UniProtKB/TrEMBL annotation:
Gene3D superfamilies per the UniProt record, alphabetical: 1.20.5.2700
The encoding gene: nad5
Organism of origin: Ganoderma sinense
Pfam families per the UniProt record, alphabetical: NADH5_C, Proton_antipo_M, Proton_antipo_N
Catalysed reactions listed for this entry: a ubiquinone + NADH + 5 H(+)(in) = a ubiquinol + NAD(+) + 4 H(+)(out)
Protein name: NADH-ubiquinone oxidoreductase chain 5
Ranges where the NADH-Ubiquinone oxidoreductase (complex I) chain 5 N-terminal domain occurs: 64-114
Known function: Core subunit of the mitochondrial membrane respiratory chain NADH dehydrogenase (Complex I) that is believed to belong to the minimal assembly required for catalysis. Complex I functions in the transfer of electrons from NADH to the respiratory chain. The immediate electron acceptor for the enzyme is believed to be ubiquinone.
Length: 660
């Protein structure tokens, strides 16, 4: 049963991709959706057996590599952490498949699209179920390749080409660091198996474990779009909207978080790595929230919201609250998928318009979509008793309960980010649904609610965004819960759940909610009731707007310092080294040397008796030197190199003979 969870998406991908012409568009829809739904049902059973009944399962298929003490197995581990990731990945992937049957109905490449979606889901399942870092890395690279194919699905668009290449190359930076970390683990401990590594982690050298922790973080930073490897994620909005929902809600961006949570037994013994993780996560959350304030593309606003929420998750990992981070991963997957699919419904019904300034007044035309997006937005804001409330606010409270520099830093930025998140979220709601119509009349005439294939996924995700956190919060993050068992390790010194629950002032707990309420009210007032944004007339405000709209000029710096320098280095290597020095001492130089040597040796045959006498004399002297050199050169460094000296002298003589 457990392997069937992985096999069904792969089967659907192969059938849709290889037999797409035979089965047609409808056949591809039916087969891929059916395979995903079956996998979801099996994952639910696995969650019951492994998670609720506490019986992890390990499946060893074969040996991939065996060399002395190093043994790498094709092995899968189904423990509480794995089955917890199965739920959002498979549920949301199934709903996105159903949504796509309507959204992509007019696309001529439906079979290829659904094949990519199912293959992406398969590699994500491989990533979260691997029993060692090798199997995890197979899934890690798999989702990287398929994400490139999905972002670049409309490959005739230049912007899609650029976005896909940017995502692929920027993720290679993190993958390089992650690979070096794996090599270091093999060199130090001789294994990649989770059980072996995590048992030996307490006995590792502190410097080594710090370096390995930072290398693992580099991989997570690229995959989960953390500063400074975040630039690829907003650009990936060039892909179809279902791709945005799949990549940025439940799968690719959460892979980095899964890596950090799975590596908790290593990270817990590296205070340096935890400090850096906390600072990176808090900074990313605040950075993305400020950038989201000034975006005008509907999908990009939600994309920056994703980066911000990923910052919260990484921050929770740095605070050693791995179960809370995972809870927020699952919660965020549901309401962010709801927001993306809701945005897709708006775009699809309004002539593919994505600029929020050209929308407005859609509450009358799309009431169900408005309700669904409002539920997702309120859950994103951690509105009490909705799904996001049970993890997002808890992360901020746990940061304050650390009573340390990094904890205070995370609490301040996390609280500010909560207010900014509310502002840009309700700015989106106001501009798209509440303000007066700003688009062309013909778009409003054709605007209407979509079919059941769109409404059903939105309805199901809205239910999860309302009830999931309430139902599962005590199981995942309740005081005294042992749901995750040995799959997550938190050092006793880092457990602060009790302090966060009982010893904090009420005002500290209410601060994020108060800031969120202020941000939401301010956004509705400015963008719904105020005709002009008077403060935009200030030169300072315009400069701040430009700076934030330019995403802190990260792209400019990358293009100027890294891309330009990289192209110059490539030109130098190509012209000077590859076609210059290497060519001179390589094929071209070897050919010339052999040719010239042949000519010079031919010139030795002069026909003069004195020249032949010289050759005989040199030969005899070389023979004498070879025989008596151990005596003449005893204890000398030249003793070991006498043959080389004779060879070099003879070669020089052959290349440059004396000519009369």
């Amino acid at each position: 049963m457990y392997l069937s969870i992985l096999i069904f998406p792969l089967l659907g991908s192969f059938v849709s991709g290889l037999l797409g012409r035979k089965i047609g568009v409808t056949g591809a829809h039916i087969i891929t959706c059916t395979c995903l739904i079956i996998s979801s049902i099996l994952a639910t059973l696995a969650f019951y057996e492994v998670g609720l009944c506490g019986s992890p399962v390990s499946v060893n298929l074969s040996t991939w590599l065996e060399s002395e003490i190093l043994s790498v197995q094709w092995e899968f581990l189904f423990d509480q952490l794995t089955v917890s990731m199965f739920i959002p990945v498979l549920y949301i992937s199934s709903l996105i498949h159903i949504f796509s049957t309507n959204y992509m109905a007019e696309d001529p490449h439906n079979q290829r699209f659904f094949s990519y979606l199912s293959l992406f889901t398969f590699f994500m399942l491989v990533l979260v179920s691997g029993a060692n870092y090798f199997v995890m890395f197979v899934g890690w690279e798999g989702i990287g390749v398929v994400s490139y194919l999905l972002i670049n699905f409309w490959f005739t668009r230049i912007q899609a080409n650029k976005a896909a290449i940017l995502a692929f190359t920027m993720n290679r930076v993190g993958d390089m660091g992650l690979s070096i970390g794996f090599f270091a683990l093999v060199a130090l401990l001789g294994s990649l198996n989770y059980s072996t590594l995590f048992s030996l982690a307490p006995f590792m050298n502190s410097t080594a474990i710090d370096i390995i922790g930072l290398l693992l973080l580099s991989g997570a930073m690229a995959k989960s779009a953390q500063i400074p490897l975040h630039s690829w994620l907003p650009g990936s909005m060039e892909g179809p909207t279902p791709v945005s929902a799949l990549i940025h809600a439940a799968t690719l961006v959460t892979a980095g978080l899964y890596l950090l949570v799975r590596s908790s037994p290593i990270l817990e013994y590296s205070s340096t790595a935890l400090l850096v993780i906390t600072l990176v996560g808090a900074s990313t959350a605040f950075f993305a929230a400020t950038c989201g304030l000034v975006q005008n593309d509907l999908k990009r606003i939600i994309a920056f919201s994703t980066i911000s929420q990923l910052g919260y998750m990484v921050m929770a990992v740095g605070l050693s609250q791995y179960n809370v981070a995972l809870m927020h991963v699952v919660n965020h997957a549901f309401f962010k998928a709801l927001l993306f699919l809701g945005a897709g419904a708006v775009i699809h019904s309004f002539s593919d318009q994505q600029d929020v300034r050209r929308l407005g007044g859609l509450i009358k035309f799309l009431p169900f979509t408005y309700t669904a997006m409002l539920v997702g937005t309120l859950s994103l804001l951690a509105t009490p008793w909705l799904t996001g409330f049970y993890s997002k606010d808890l992360i901020i409270e746990l940061a304050f309960a650390q009573y340390s520099f990094e904890g205070t830093f995370a609490f301040i930025l996390g609280s500010l980010t909560a207010g900014l998140t509310a502002f840009y979220s309700f700015r989106l709601i106001s501009l798209v649904f509440l303000t007066k119509p700003n688009g062309p009349k013909i778009s409003y005439l054709h605007s209407h609610e979509a079919t059941l294939a769109v409404i059903i996924p939105l309805f199901v995700l809205a239910l999860f965004s309302i009830f999931f956190g309430f139902v599962f919060s005590d199981l995942f993050v309740g005081i005294g819960t042992d749901f995750f068992g040995n799959s997550i390790f938190i050092h006793p010194n880092h457990i602060t759940m009790v302090e966060a629950e009982f010893s904090m002032d009420r005002i500290v707990k209410l601060l994020p909610t108060i800031l969120s309420l202020l941000g939401a009210v301010l956004a509705v007032y400015l963008y719904h009731f105020t005709p002009n944004l008077f403060f935009m007339e200030s030169p300072i405000t315009r400069k701040i707007y430009t700076f934030l709209n330019g995403k802190y000029l990260f792209d400019v710096m990358y293009n100027h310092y890294f891309i330009g320098s990289g192209l110059q280095l490539g030109y130098f290597i190509s012209k000077v080294l590859d076609r210059g020095v290497i060519e001179f001492v390589g094929p071209y130089g070897l050919s010339n040397t052999l040719s010239q040597t042949g000519i010079n040796i031919g010139k030795l045959d002069t026909g003069v008796i004195t020249t032949y006498s010289l050759y005989i004399t040199i030969g005899l002297l070389s023979l004498v030197f070879l025989v008596f050199s151990p005596i003449l050169l005893d204890n000398s460094i030249l003793n070991e190199n006498r043959l080389f000296i004779i060879y070099l002298a003879t070669l020089l003589f052959a290349l440059y003979p004396n000519q009369k």
